Amino acid sequence: MGVTDSRVDAVCNIKHGRYIVVEEGSNPSSDFFVKPLLTRLSFKFTCYQHSDTPNIADIENTILVFVRYIPSTWRSFVDQYRHRLAGLVIFIDDDLFDGRVLASLSWGYLSKWYRLAYRHQSWLKQQKADLWVSTSYLFDKYCDWCAPGCQLTLIDPVSPYGEDGADSFLSSPIIFYHGSPSHRAEIDWLLPVFEKVLHMHPQVTIELIGDDTLRRRCLKFPQIRVLHPMSWLSYQRMLKESKRLIGLAPLLDTKVNAARAPTKYFDISAAGAVGVYANSHVYRQLVTHKVNGLLVEMDQEAWVEAITSLIDDVQQRRALFIEAGRRQLILPDIV
């Protein structure tokens, strides 16, 4: 699947040059979107961390890409040297610029998003920053965001796992949902689903990522394993080193989720699993029901039925898994 013709043109119009990617450590936003795009375009790029001290001698005449966030040191650097940069870009893969979305977040997320993203909107426009976005939803929402002469570009995700992520089929009975703290509502929604699945299939292990609070909530289910949160690099290694059976990607109807990208599709494939996905515009971009995954309405009974059908039907799992491996996202030719 690719972008529409007008959006292909937008990608083609990305400025040529040497890029500096400013990121908050190794992270999925860079690995799913920004780095694959620059690599495909054969643009040279160097990655800097938020904590790095920028030096104009190294960065002059480059195009600076902020991945989601703008740290204060780098903002001051741009204020001083914008005239010596070849370009400025902000990439977002959440709706970081809508105050109504921020209001729905936990305090920790709200504070970070406001401090590192939301409050910089006017500044980014004044600095004539191009806007790169991860979804059609964001592309349409911010079509008038850029200042005259700036570029709005939609970037599709690409799997960062390589071809070996989906090269085998193992049937160890692990069902997983690896939602971040911003997906706590999805975890709450899934717990009654897990209870019914475990009643029918007590041999199954369910794997979540969470804190001690979630761990205590799950103590009554010895089959539920709660992993500690980990770095992006550690998470990638974990997925590829230990294969799983079924991956889950629910999405409740919230303002935050409206802007999600379908990157969990790649996580699930890399884990050697098949996916049960919310029947949402987010996952319909990549998933065809009963072809390379299951698209299911956000009804708990329907999810119990979908998960148990995959546990019981080895042939269905195998067919879905093989097709998911074939359907890794292929971008249109753009160079």
Describe the protein's architecture and organization:
The structure is a single chain. The protein is α/β, with parallel strands linked by helices. The protein folds into two domains: 5-154, Rossmann fold; 163-326, Rossmann fold (3-Layer(aba) Sandwich), CATH 3.40.50.2000. 41% of the residues lie in helices and 16% in strands. The strands form two sheets. The protein has a six-stranded parallel sheet. β5 (130-133), α8 and β6 form a beta-alpha-beta unit. The two termini are 17 Å apart. This is Glycosyl transferases group 1. It holds the Pfam family Glyco_trans_1_4.
Task: Itemize the secondary structure elements and their pairings.
Elements: H1 5-12, E1 19-23, H2 28-40, E2 45-49, H3 56-59, E3 63-67, H4 72-81, E4 87-92, H5 99-103, H6 107-116, H7 121-126, E5 130-133, H8 136-141, E6 152-154, E7 174-177, H9 184-200, E8 205-209, H10 212-217, E9 224-227, H11 232-241, E10 246-249, H12 255-258, H13 264-270, E11 274-278, H14 281-284, E12 294-296, H15 300-312, H16 314-326
Parallel strand pairs: 1-2, 1-3, 3-4, 4-5, 5-6, 7-8, 7-10, 8-9, 10-11, 11-12
Helix pairs in contact: 9-15
Protein name: Glycosyl transferases group 1
